Amino acid sequence: MKLIYTALLALPAALATKGVVTLDDLTFDKIVDGSRQVLVKFDKQYAYGDAEDAFKETAEKLGELKSGLVIAEVGMQDYGDDPENKKLHDKYEINKDDFPVYKLFPKGGGAPLDGPKKADGSKDDQKGALGSFLKVNAGVNTFMGKGQIGAFDDLAEKFTGDAEIGRAHV
């Protein structure tokens, strides 16, 4: 009996996504309060598949980068008369047919920015779309590798992105 009890206590930790804060109707406003940037993924309670794997890998990468961006998720049960977190999904007009739905809540408050839409591409395509969204809108580069310097990466991107500049220095 003790073994079963211990296993049940460990279950939520095993299901938690590394680097992600799980929010609900009661904790959402405590984290998404305008004091920091927060990327929130609205999804079903127990998501799986390429989109979930892309999200998990992106969250872990952001944790390694030690960015100030908080990554959170709000799962909604898809059963019962009053599913958990349904009010929060309704507040932000989240349709379960669109899962996962990403919203970036800016520091200082204001309306959230809509993230990349549901993708049918590969996990890498979905990771790229989420990474590009975060780079442009949150100033966080998930494409950075260990040992890379962000300022140099930005300079290289500017250099290679402009064909005229590239030709002038060849």
Description:
The protein is α/β, with parallel strands linked by helices and 170 residues long. A hairpin with a 7-residue loop joins strand 4 (101-105) and strand 5. The longest helix is centred in the middle third of the chain and has 16 residues, at 50-65. 44% of the residues lie in helices and 14% in strands. A five-stranded mixed beta sheet has the order 1-3-2-4-5. The protein is built from seven helices and five strands. It has helices at residues 2-15, 28-31, 50-65, 86-91, 123-138, 150-161, 163-168; strands at residues 21-22, 38-44, 70-76, 101-105, 113-114. Mean pLDDT is 80; it is low at 1-14 and 162-170.
Itemize the secondary structure elements and their pairings.
Elements (H helix, E strand, L loop, with lengths): L1 H14 L5 E2 L5 H4 L6 E7 L5 H16 L4 E7 L9 H6 L9 E5 L7 E2 L8 H16 L11 H12 L1 H6 L2
Parallel strand pairs: 1-3, 2-3
Antiparallel strand pairs: 2-4, 4-5
Helix pairs in contact: 3-5
Short key terms for the protein model shown above:
5 strands, alpha/beta, disordered N terminus, globular, 14% strand, 170 residues, disordered C terminus
Structural class: alpha/beta
Query: Gap between N and C termini, in Å?
Result: 72 Å
Largest sheet: 5 strands, mixed
Radius of gyration (Å)? 19 Å
Q: Order of strands across the biggest sheet?
A: 1-3-2-4-5
Poorly predicted runs are 1-14, 162-170
* Average pLDDT reading: 80
Write the H/E string, N to C.
Answer: HEHEHEHEEHHH
Query: Could you say which overall geometry the principal axes of the C-alpha atoms support?
Result: globular
Question: What portion of residues belong to β-strands?
Answer: 5-15%
**Helix-residue proportion:** 40-55%
Total beta-strand segments: 5
Helices, by number, come to 7
